[in-house]
């Protein structure tokens, strides 16, 4: 999979709704300010799968699969975000493997990856808050 | 009839027989092996004790540090087999026939020798007072003595030691450690008369008394009085007084065991000791004597290991055909007794012609230092009482002119002393480890030529620091200095984002009153890491520093507020412990393990209503497993209503303070251990630290609460509380060290406050107190200096920091359920707050739930 993360404005200016693209199109997930820099939230997708959405320190948004492939538990959204050689990643809270937030690749095991999803912020004007 | 062993190595050209397998005997065997003598000669050892050589010097650590007889062993696994040495344990030599060159053992074994080495050590001298053989009289020399003392002490309340010298004080420390009311009776007008002078003796007396040992000097023991049951009941002293006591330990000096030598006609000294020359040979060229049984060429019998080891080396060299001689040794000593610092070295009493002394004495803090200096400025010796910090540097300087004026060497740091003399100032010839005769040059060589990169490596390579341990601190400083000098880049940085250690970051946060991780990273992180997201190592570590200092640096006290929320480990972020299937567990605080039936019922009801798996933990409380994120606030609302609060099972924070039932109910209890455990748990609850903190309080020395396996453990005594620190269960268990004795409630709390805050300040992330205590330079002694004697002058600050923590404490769960913003995080899905996570599933087991085993759908998650 390729990196398809949208560049978004800096954190302070972030408002509007975070949307994530699935096979069926864009899905509204939450208000942008519900995402704390450095932490994630989980979203339930229409097909029953789960995604983990994150926002990093510079305001950039990411979405990858939420289910930790090493344990089968839906927990990646609860992990800690960090930077490794300019890549932003989340460390699984269970066994601590790191996943690149841009493309879902596991940084500690080349053979493993989770899905990754494009994310965007829908214009604030379009949303009644 | 003589039986001769059919030894596997009797093809070898000659036979060496060693009689006595004590400390010096073992060193002799190692020296033989080092020189390859064991390859060419058959070596037979007759060992009287039921076990091979062990570290006699550290006998007292059996009581004070919980060492086991095995821990004390000095023989490396497989040593005898590797070198083909025949060791006969529990079989002493009973006769030597010099004409036929044979030795006969008690079992009847007779061995022919080409060379005989006597290393039979000493026996404790018991003065001929009436009653000395009564039940309850002991000596203190072997592990067997120690086991007997320990067993007998169970049944008595008090004990007295005859003799106030080095060993007497060690024995007193051991009795004190067994919880006895302890007395020391010394005939001389002061304690340790051989090592210290009168002023030093006074300072020493004060610190010994401070440990709760009663000191009687200038009185002799006239009689041991015996009760109708034949057991010791007390002592009659020369001043006419009576001292009631349940047991007596004689420690009135030692005498060389030279009986074998006498019996076979070898010359012995007037006051004992087998006469040897500079090569440690007796009058018979085939017989050597080494260690405490020998009367050295300088006319002395040495009662210390260091000279013994030198004799062992000398004899081994001579036997191997190398040159070597022993002409005398230094009598430096440092008392290992916990809580009393005293050291004496070189010409401590100033007997050299024309010498002068320089003294510093502070009766208030019990510090006395004296240096003896020759007319040309050479340092000749000295006495240190109360603070022996400088011993490691001063002893090696003995015999040379120190680079700083002697008055500066006795003044306390900061009191006009312009320089503190570090070990780097020592010349290469300076002997750093006197027990093993290792010079500074040899230690540097271990690093530069033998690629040692740690103190551990250097100890193994040079043996420095492997005996009495008093040189280990200086050793550590030298190794670090040498590593740095040889350009080994020791990156002490915490992670790729910070070049500092955790302790350094703590100081930065405290000094600059920083309250934000970003500020710290952007201002003080590694250049390339500034502006990044950090990592899962530094974020929780900084979160912990901010949390421990929150009230002081002005950060929010709640760990889920503002930026702090993003730094917390997952468990802290949800104030619960994540389990293998993504569900969480709940551990309410149950201080001291005490709980009312009503509260137990509430826990039962909550568990039943939410279908939680319920288990009693190893920490004397109850864990409820299997809650989904969105259930946590509902469950905690019920618990908080019933008066429960967070147990911080998720945090690197205080976990539990376990207790035994104690004096209130138990027939043996001497203090109210439950009350103290509850008080301590409530005082330190919520305290974030580098790793989790555990504690326990036992009501008496039976130790039902296992306090000695805790980070800080408290054991009741008749007079108050003993505080132990640095214990650990887990993967690498460690018995805690005794930090201080017989503390009042207030003293105990104050000392724990200081200890914890000092640990929080200086430990690395995820470093338990046990590891920290062993890692930091100076170890326990240093920590004691800092928290008991306030050597860094920071105790007021440590106490103030703890006071701020205690005053600022709030229950995290109560605060969370009352705050809608914090609560909004407790959902499985942000876009479907009412939908539970379908991957969290359970199946029944033994009437409760357990996580459903997960089958990983690998095809779905693995991509190329
Ligand atoms: C629940 C409990 C087991 C039980 O059912 O009895 C438990 C459970 C866990 N222990 Fe423990 N330990 C529990 C008592 C102990 C004890 C006994 C004690 O405290 O008296 C020990 C040995 C004592 C000690 O710590 O020195 C203990 C030594 C460990 C260790 C090893 C620590 C070490 O220094 O070697 C770990 C691993 C770690 O912390 O890195 C650990 C880690 C854990 C973790 C946190 C592992 C994890 O990361 O998932 C477990 C999760 C707890 C949870 O989900 O609630 N647990 N653990 C006990 C909770 C006690 C409590 O009430 O808080
Ligand atoms: C509690 C305590 C604390 C001490 N602290 C210090 C200290 O801090 N610093 C220091 O330098 N020194 C200290 N010492 C002294 C130190 O232990 C001795 O100097 C050292 O053990 C001497 O070694 P050794 O081999 O000569 O004698 P030992 O270690 O006594 O060994 C002699 C061995 O020979 C055995 N033996 C005797 N006769 C026979 C026989 N006929 N056949 C076979 N075996 C025989 C004995 O059973 C014994 O095992 C301390 C001693 C004690 C007891
Ligand atoms: S430690 Fe002592 S007081 Fe406490 S329960 Fe055990 S025997 Fe009783
Ligand atoms: S001085 Fe005793 S071990 Fe080094």
TrEMBL record, chain A:
PROSITE patterns: NIRD, RIESKE. The keyword Iron-sulfur applies. Keywords: 2Fe-2S, Iron, Iron-sulfur, Metal-binding, Nitrate assimilation, Oxidoreductase. InterPro entries: NirD, Rieske-like_NirD, Rieske_2Fe-2S, Rieske_2Fe-2S_sf. SUPFAM superfamilies: ISP domain. It comes from the Bacteria. Residues 27-128 form the Rieske domain. GO terms for biological process: nitrate assimilation. Its EC number is 1.7.1.4. One of its GO terms (molecular function) is 2 iron, 2 sulfur cluster binding. This is Nitrite reductase (NAD(P)H) small subunit. It comes from Actinacidiphila bryophytorum.
Automatic annotation (TrEMBL), chain B:
GO terms for biological process: nitrate assimilation. Keywords: 2Fe-2S, 4Fe-4S, FAD, Flavoprotein, Heme, Iron, Iron-sulfur, Metal-binding, Nitrate assimilation, Oxidoreductase, Thioether bond. Residues 431-475 form the BFD-like [2Fe-2S]-binding domain. The lineage of its organism: Bacteria, Bacillati, Actinomycetota, Actinomycetes, Kitasatosporales. Binds 1 [4Fe-4S] cluster per subunit. Binds 1 siroheme per subunit. This is assimilatory sulfite reductase (ferredoxin). It is an enzyme of class 1 (oxidoreductase). Residues 651-787 form the Nitrite/sulphite reductase 4Fe-4S domain.
């Amino acid at each position: 999979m390729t990196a398809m993360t949208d560049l978004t404005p800096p954190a302070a200016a972030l408002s509007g709704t975070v949307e994530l693209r699935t096979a069926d199109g864009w899905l509204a997930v939450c208000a942008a300010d519900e995402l704390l820099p450095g932490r994630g939230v989980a979203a339930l997708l229409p097909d029953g799968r789960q995604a983990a959405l994150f926002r990093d320190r510079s305001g950039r948004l990411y979405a990858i699969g939420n289910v930790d492939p090493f344990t089968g538990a839906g927990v990646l959204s609860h992990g800690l975000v960090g930077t490794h050689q300019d890549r932003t990643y989340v460390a699984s809270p269970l066994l601590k493997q790191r996943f690149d937030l841009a493309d879902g690749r596991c940084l500690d095991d080349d053979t493993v990856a989770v899905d990754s999803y494009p994310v965007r912020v829908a214009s604030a004007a379009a949303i009644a808050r | 009839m003589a039986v001769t062993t059919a030894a596997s190595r009797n093809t070898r050209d000659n036979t060496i027989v060693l009689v006595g397998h004590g400390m010096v005997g073992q060193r002799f065997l190692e020296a033989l092996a080092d020189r390859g003598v064991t390859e060419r000669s058959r070596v037979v050892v007759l060992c009287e004790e039921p076990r091979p050589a062990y570290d006699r010097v550290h006998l007292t650590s059996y009581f004070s540090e919980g060492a086991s007889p095995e821990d004390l062993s000095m023989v490396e696994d497989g040593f005898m087999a590797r070198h083909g040495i025949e060791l006969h344990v529990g079989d002493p030599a009973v006769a030597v026939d010099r004409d036929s060159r044979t030795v006969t053992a008690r079992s009847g074994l007779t061995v022919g020798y080409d060379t005989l080495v006597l290393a039979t050590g000493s026996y404790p001298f018991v003065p001929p007072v009436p009653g000395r053989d009564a039940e309850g009289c002991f000596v203190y020399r072997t592990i067997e003595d120690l086991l007997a003392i320990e067993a007998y002490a169970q049944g008595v309340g008090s004990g007295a030691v005859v003799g106030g010298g080095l060993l007497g004080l060690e024995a007193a420390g051991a009795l004190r450690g067994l919880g006895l009311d302890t007395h020391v009776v010394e005939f001389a007008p002061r304690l340790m008369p051989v090592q210290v002078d009168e002023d030093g003796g006074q300072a020493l007396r004060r610190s010994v008394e401070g440990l709760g040992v009663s000191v009687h000097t200038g009185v002799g023991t006239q009689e041991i009085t015996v009760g109708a049951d034949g057991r010791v009941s007390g002592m009659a002293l020369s001043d006419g007084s009576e001292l009631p006591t349940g047991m007596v330990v004689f420690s009135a000096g030692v005498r060389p065991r030279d009986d074998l030598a006498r019996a076979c006609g070898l010359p012995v000294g007037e006051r004992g000791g087998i006469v040897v020359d500079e090569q440690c040979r007796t009058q018979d060229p085939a017989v050597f004597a080494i260690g405490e049984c020998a009367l050295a060429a300088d006319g002395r019998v040495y009662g210390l290991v260091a000279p013994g080891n030198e004799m062992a080396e000398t004899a081994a060299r001579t036997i191997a055909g190398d040159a070597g001689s022993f002409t005398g040794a230094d009598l430096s000593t440092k008392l290992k007794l916990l809580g009393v610092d005293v050291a004496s070295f070189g010409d401590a009493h100033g007997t050299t012609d024309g010498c002068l002394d320089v003294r510093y004495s502070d009766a208030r803090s019990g510090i006395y230092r004296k240096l003896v200096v020759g007319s040309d400025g050479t340092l000749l010796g000295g006495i240190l009482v109360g603070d022996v910090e400088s011993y490691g540097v001063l002893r090696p300087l003995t015999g040379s002119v120190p680079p700083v004026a002697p008055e500066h060497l006795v003044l306390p740091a900061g009191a006009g002393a312009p320089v503190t003399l570090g070990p780097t100032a020592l010349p290469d010839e300076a002997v750093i480890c006197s027990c093993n005769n290792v010079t500074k040059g040899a230690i540097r060589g271990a690093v530069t030529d033998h690629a040692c990169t740690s103190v551990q490596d250097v100890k193994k390579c040079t043996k420095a620091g492997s005996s009495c341990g008093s040189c280990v601190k200086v050793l550590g400083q030298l190794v670090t200095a040498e590593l740095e000098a040889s350009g080994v880049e020791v990156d002490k940085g915490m992670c790729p984002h910070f070049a500092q250690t955790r302790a350094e970051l703590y100081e930065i946060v405290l000094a600059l009153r920083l309250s934000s991780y970003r500020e710290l990273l952007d201002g003080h992180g590694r250049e390339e890491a500034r502006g990044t997201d950090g990592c899962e190592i530094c974020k929780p570590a900084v979160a912990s520093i901010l949390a421990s200092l929150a009230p002081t640096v002005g950060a929010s006290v709640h760990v889920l507020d503002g930026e702090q929320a993003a730094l917390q480990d997952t468990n802290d972020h949800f104030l619960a412990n994540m389990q293998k299937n993504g569900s969480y567990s709940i551990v309410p605080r149950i201080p001291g393990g005490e709980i009312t039936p009503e509260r137990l019922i509430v826990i039962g009801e909550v568990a039943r209503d939410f279908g939680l798996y319920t288990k009693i933990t190893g920490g004397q409380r109850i864990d409820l497993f299997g809650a989904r994120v969105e259930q946590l606030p509902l469950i905690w609302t019920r618990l908080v209503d019933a008066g429960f609060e967070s147990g911080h099972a998720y945090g690197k924070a205080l976990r539990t303070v376990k207790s035994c039932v104690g004096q209130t109910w138990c027939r043996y209890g001497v203090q109210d251990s439950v009350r103290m455990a509850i008080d301590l748990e409530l005082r330190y609850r919520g305290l974030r630290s580098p790793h989790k903190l555990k504690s326990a309080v036992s009501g008496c020395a039976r130790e039902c609460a296992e306090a000695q396996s805790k980070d800080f453990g408290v054991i009741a005594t008749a007079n108050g509380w003993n505080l132990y620190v640095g214990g650990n269960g887990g993967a690498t268990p460690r018995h805690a060290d005794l930090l201080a004795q017989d503390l009042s409630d207030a003293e105990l709390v104050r000392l724990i406050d200081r200890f914890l805050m000092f640990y929080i300040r200086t430990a690395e992330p995820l470093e338990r107190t046990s590891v920290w205590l062993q890692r930091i330079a100076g170890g326990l002694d240093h920590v004691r200096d800092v928290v008991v004697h306030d050597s860094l002058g920071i105790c007021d600050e440590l106490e103030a920091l703890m006071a701020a923590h205690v005053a600022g404490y709030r229950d995290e769960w109560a605060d969370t359920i009352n705050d809608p913003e914090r609560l909004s995080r407790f959902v499985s899905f942000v876009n479907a707050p009412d939908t539970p996570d379908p991957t969290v599933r359970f199946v029944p087991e033994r009437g409760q739930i357990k996580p459903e085993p997960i089958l990983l759908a690998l095809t779905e998650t693995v991509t190329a």
